[in-house]
Design goal:
With 622 residues, the chain is α+β, with helices and mostly antiparallel strands. 29% of the residues lie in helices and 28% in strands. It has a four-stranded antiparallel sheet, with no helix packed on it.
């Protein structure tokens, strides 16, 4: 049996009187000892002796053969000796204790580091330590620590139950709130359906009444007709009947006029609630999960220490949502955030693009030697393959720029001036011209495909699901198919709340919760959000944005050119907040359009201020 350090070898009396191999004896075998290891204090048979001399960790041990090893195991067990090796000198055992440094030392340590210390021999003080207060204090600490650990375990078990209760309680709160929301929308749906039913009933009652009057009128007219036809062979009687019928027919004509006047049905349409649309576009719809934790500073004995009293019960709160950088358009009370609140929050909330720094760098010259007039770059569009497409109104050309070389690689002249552009499937681009939409092929060299005639001076064009959306200089916005057939039109007076005055540019966001059409109105200084059926959903406005022109989409944010405010604004769609990214001090003056390419971390801007009209301004972001 292996020796336990500091204790006598526990064997029976018969085993102590003869020398046996101790490792084998532990396994139940009794083999004669052939050697004795002075370091391990063990008797070993020939097999274990051979292994002991071969292993790297034990080959330096001193082995005594039969002639010099202790005569019996009884002699070995009489004296307690330390077999704990020194951490610094593994070949030496610990024998001394230094009270000054509170360290356990071997002979080498004593000579090298503790010559001036009054050390104690462990074998002389160990028994007194065991019987003294020091060892008793350690045992009490162990007992107390075990008790504290048991208390901690009990607390953990209680917290496990609390955690389960927290989850169940908050899940119940969410589902109860969802039930309230469902109930509310069910009631609203039923109220709207009831209104539609009432309107429909009113129309049907009116039409049934008018139809009955028309039927009676028709009977009277047919009766007069039959009377006249019956007297056509008697001119005298026909004259009398016709003269009498003339007055009756006048009354019947008046009756028909009254029927036509009353024939005015009640038209109606469903209009989405803007606040509900904001909630649908929000990242924190229904609510969020807030974590509230309380941290208690505990001493070693499980009680708060005086040094830690300043940090006791420190409470922190976290809010978890799909996007923690944005805010819900609804405040905690469930009402819409006011314009004043939005403006105040704008100074502290900076998300996405608003966090970046925009540094002007070398622009891209797009005016060629053959072009005698100054450029007026009304639009720019990112194309696949690190390409940028530009529309030059003055030279009526579409120009293609390679962003890798920052050089003009192709240009194509079109019949009339150009304003807006949008991507189409199949490497095509739609370009709004004077009275047409031009379809350009962009794979390889630029070339003109089909064109769609439109009725007006169109400013901008967008695309979604095989439909085009076009804005016009006179305030009209249209939805049409790819053949040019108008599906729906927004004109002045069609909506009573906010008709367009000069919808300079529009941008179609085709994916995500913010899917909509966004129109910039140069005169009203607004960005209007419409659904895909041209119903107005929401209007954005900020004092810092004047004369908005070009719009581009970057994730759930819009970049907007302030043509009169000389800046580039960022509209965060979930929160509805605007932030200025770059202004006049950054070289932004009368911007027409903007494009941000995330892979390059660059923003491209076209402006309407000489001499910068011939360049695409470039800003690096960090």
């Amino acid at each position: 049996m292996d020796e336990v350090p500091g204790k006598k070898l526990q064997t029976d009396a018969s085993a102590l009187e003869t020398n046996h191999c101790q490792p084998c004896f532990q396994d139940g075998e009794t083999l004669p000892a052939e050697a004795y290891c002075t370091f391990c204090k063990e008797f070993m048979c020939s097999n274990y002796t051979h292994v002991h001399r071969k292993q790297r960790i034990t080959k330096s041990h001193t082995l005594l053969d039969k002639s010099s090893m202790p005569p019996t195991m009884q002699d070995f067990t009489i004296k307690e000796e330390s077999t704990q090796p020194c951490d610094i000198h593994p070949e030496e055992c610990i024998k001394y204790f230094c009270p000054t440094h509170q360290t356990l030392n071997c002979g080498h340590c004593s000579v090298l580091d503790h010559q001036s210390c009054k050390q104690q021999i462990i074998s002389e003080i160990a028994k007194a330590f065991k019987e003294g207060q020091g060892y008793e204090a350690i045992k009490q600490i162990i007992v107390q620590l075990l008790r504290d650990t048991d208390v901690c375990v009990d607390n953990i078990k209680e917290n496990i139950k609390l955690v389960e209760g927290f989850g169940e309680h908050e899940i119940a709160n969410i589902r109860n709130y969802r039930d309230q929301i469902n109930k509310y929308f069910d009631e609203r749906e039923n109220a709207l359906l009831k209104i539609i039913a009432q309107m429909q009933s009113m129309n049907e009652t009116l039409l049934d009444s008018l139809k009955s009057e028309c039927d009676n009128l028709k009977i009277e007219v047919n009766k007069i007709k039959e009377e006249l036809e019956a007297h056509e062979n008697n001119n005298y009687q026909l004259f009398i009947e016709a003269h009498t019928a003339k007055n009756v027919l006048k009354k019947l004509q008046s009756t028909l006029v009254e029927i036509n006047i009353k024939h005015s049905i009640h038209e109606y349409q469903f209009r989405k609630d803007p606040i509900t649309e904001e909630v649908l576009g929000s990242k924190t719809g229904i609510g969020s999960i807030e974590e509230t934790t309380t941290a208690n500073a505990l001493g070693w004995d499980g009680h708060t220490t005086s040094a830690d009293s300043d940090i006791q019960a420190t409470e922190t709160t976290k809010t978890f949502s799909a996007n923690t950088e944005t805010e819900s358009p609804l405040n905690p009370s469930g009402t819409q955030t006011s314009a004043k609140q939005k403006h105040e929050k704008q100074t502290t909330i900076r998300t996405g693009l608003a966090k970046l720094k925009y540094t002007p760098t070398a622009g891209i010259l797009v005016k060629t030697s053959s072009n005698t007039s100054e450029c007026w770059l009304t639009s720019l569009l990112e194309l696949p393959g690190d390409r940028l497409l530009l529309a030059d109104f003055n030279s009526i050309t579409v120009e293609l720029v390679d962003l890798n070389t920052c050089s003009l690689v192709d240009e194509f002249r079109v019949p009339t001036g150009l304003l807006g552009m949008c991507l189409l499937p199949g490497d095509r681009v739609a370009v709004s011209s004077h009275r047409s939409i031009l379809l350009l092929e962009t794979c390889g060299q630029l070339s003109l495909g089909n064109s769609i005639s439109v009725d007006g001076e169109c400013c901008s064009v967008g695309y979604d699901n095989n439909n085009l959306f076009v804005s016009y200089n006179d305030g009209v916005v249209e939805k049409m198919d790819m053949e040019g057939k108008v599906i729906k039109k927004v004109t002045k007076g069609w909506f009573s709340n906010s008709p367009f005055k000069k919808p300079s540019y529009l941008k179609v966001v085709s994916e995500g919760p913010t899917k909509a059409i966004y129109v910039s109105d140069y005169e009203t200084n607004t960005i209007t959000r419409l659904d895909m059926n041209l119903n107005i959903l929401q209007t954005f406005q900020d004092p810092a944005l004047r004369g908005p022109t070009g719009i581009t989409e970057v994730g759930n944010q819009l970049l907007i050119c302030g043509g009169l405010s000389n800046n580039i604004m960022c509209l965060d769609l979930p929160s509805g907040l605007m932030t200025q990214l770059a202004g006049k001090k950054d070289g932004i003056e009368s911007p027409n359009n903007v494009c941000y390419i995330q892979q390059q971390n660059k923003m491209y801007v076209t402006v309407d201020s000489f001499p910068n009209t011939n360049y695409v301004k470039v800003y690096e972001t960090t």
